[in-house]
Amino acid sequence: MTTEETFQRPPAEIRYADELARLGEDDRGGRPPGWALSLEAARAFIVGDERRGIRRKFVGDPSLIDRALVSLATSRGLLLVGEPGTAKSLLSELIAAAVSGTSTLTIQGGAATTEDQIKYSWNYALLVSEGPSPRSLVPAPLLKGMAEGKVVRFEEITRCPLEVQDSLLSPLSERVLAIPELSGADGMVFARQGFNVIATANTRDRGVNDMSAALKRRFNFETVFPIADFTTELDLVEAEARVLLEASGVTVPPRRDVLEVLVATFRELRGGTAENGAAADRLSTVMSTAETVSVAHAVGLRGWFLRGEAGTAADIVACLAGTAAKDNADDLARLRRYLEQQAPRRRGEQWRALHDARHLLPG
């Protein structure tokens, strides 16, 4: 068994190594300094190119990809904002893999994130014995990205305290990181060509620690919107669920009719409008495409490991409970009303099964 096969989720540069290598070999376009691919090849890697056998990896507006790549080719960072579950992190990973050949220089933002997790820290045994030196320095993602000319990903930047966010000001403006503990040339790290930052922020969370005006000026903002088309979202959920189920040892594919019910349910609970235009209860929790894929995965696992089949709409109800009750206990009541009032109005065996399984909800 190879190392890749032991990973639950290999990074994009490993999952799509063959495509990146093929694009690199055939790439005749002009490349921005420090980039692994040209803008055209990087775009093809993300949105797909059937002629070259490159699969589509991100479902969204291709012009968003164009603007994002152009932003990274400038001296400004890129900030992807949008509702939770709109594949902002996936997009940042794909862009970093295409531009730098690596997507693992990642900072995960949170209330406990500190500057040393972003910039650098010290090997304290060496620090005590030798004092501050390049040998005792432990580089964090930002320092590595600057020294190597790579793209750094900063996930959920607005979850970090404001003073931690502002540690990016100098690297993004002067393109230099000072290390006061070191003297001479070792005390300044100048960014090499290819360095930049891709940050992500959820629109629901932006008020947690809103960015300073100074930091906002150093980013270009791009909004990632939910998938508007039903069939496109259904195809994506089916493809992603199939991959997850295969990795989990499930040998039967997900049922298309079950996924149709699942995607329709999520879209109606997300938007607060039923198929016939009637008002439906809108849940306060995030009913995103990512959550849809997660529930589709759980439905397939439940059906296969409990009964040896692909899973039915009744399994949707059992798996939805954990999704619906995340933020507000009242969401379970709203989900129950939806199953009682909206599901019976729809035709099909799976919609009837969805309605009949409402007793599986807790409470």
From TrEMBL:
Where on the tree of life does the source sit, at the highest rank? Answer: Bacteria
User: Which Pfam families does this chain map to?
Assistant: AAA_5
Gene3D superfamilies assigned: P-loop containing nucleotide triphosphate hydrolases
- SUPFAM superfamilies listed in its UniProt record: P-loop containing nucleoside triphosphate hydrolases (SSF52540)
According to the entry, every stretch annotated as the AAA+ ATPase domain falls at: 74-229
InterPro entries assigned: AAA+_ATPase, ATPase_dyneun-rel_AAA, CbbQ/NirQ/NorQ/GpvN, P-loop_NTPase
UniProt name for this protein? AAA family ATPase
